[in-house]
Amino acid sequence: MIGEDLRQAVLAREDVRRLYEPPDGDPAALPRIEGYLEELRATQRHSIYRALKHPLYPILRKVERVAEGLPHLRKALDTGRVVYVSNHKSHLDYLVELLILEDFDLRPPIIAAGINLFGGALGLLHKHVTGAIPIRRGARDAAYLVTLKAFVAELLQSHDLFFYPEGGRSYSGELKTAKTGLFNAIVLAEVPVLHIVPVAIAYDLVLEDRILAPQVTKGRQRPFSRELAEMVGTAVGYQSRAFVTFGAPVTLTGGESRSRRDVIDLAQTVLAAVGRLHKALPTALVASVMRPSMPRGELVAAVQGLIDRLADSGANLGTTNGAEAVEQALALFEERGVLQPEGDIVRVRDRFVLRYYARQLKHLLVPARPSSEA
Fold first, then answer.
1. Could you list the residue range(s) of the whole structural domain that residue 340 is in?
2. By CB neighbour count within 10 A (0-12 exposed, 13-18 middle, 19+ buried), where does 178 fall?
3. What is the pLDDT of residue 17?
4. Three-class SS of residue 126?
5. 110-114 and 161-163 as β-strands: parallel, antiparallel, unpaired?
6. Which PANTHER family does the entry mention (predicted)?
7. Structure confidence by residue, pLDDT tens digits, 63-119
8. Is residue 305 part of a domain?
9. Do both 291 and 336 map to the same domain?
């Protein structure tokens, strides 16, 4: 239960009191702060959450969940509070990653999700069952930003947290830069031992690939109900593996003083670890080397060359065999209408979706960009 005790702890924090107490604060800010705290209030009923996998079975049965790096996670859970930091590809991520923890009977975290996911019945589900907290991405109200950071800092005294620092799904397919807002909140938490566990999720096929790929960059926020209807339409014939890989934690100890630069460095370090953990799967390998049309033998050789290059850099490879990668990717892409084998020649049918998968390995092939403070 995220309730009254947490609310009172947030209101008592010095950084929050400065917003509404004289002489420097504005008393008119208090109602806004209390409104934000009410918005963040949630209840996690884990027994009900466990049962959600049954009505969602028609979708979840299409995704084979594969967990990697569980010893890192078990050790972190045994020795301190845990913050999970993951890349974000699909609306399925919320289900797949949390159910991986459920599969192995691991302590359930509170998840931070975009406020667009809190409308209608799904909003009630998040607020009263999963215990998710809504994040107003792009908010500029100082009262909200201070309240959110204080809320998360206090939340970590009694709960683990799972969040997506990219600030939303990747519409281009590539790993985006990290936003540092919640990292600031994490370092404010005076938890004796706090483990930040990098998590990477990768799919053979992303359910929304044909929705996301043509847009490349996100325009305006759309109602989740509309996005859900689109996802149902793209689910026909969909099958995929989902690899969820947990890495070695970055450990913070209570009482450490950290500057703004330290927080940015922390965000970059964790997201770089997420990028290294990201599974390089056959679809991304083939997409990265594919030209408008290629002889199959030339495609196999190009994929093998890319595999060797990635292996030298320590990438998390789904296969080390170029021919095997091409065979697996062609089967998936042909069914998806992305590539078309014609005898010995392979041709591109949907260049937008192909580029979407090619960009999934971009972070492994080019230098990382700096984090955003937004």
1. 280-365
2. buried
3. 94
4. helix
5. parallel
6. DIHYDROXYACETONE PHOSPHATE ACYLTRANSFERASE, GLYCEROL-3-PHOSPHATE ACYLTRANSFERASE
7. 999 999 999 999 999 999 999 999 999 988 988 998 899 899 999 999 898 877 766
8. yes
9. yes
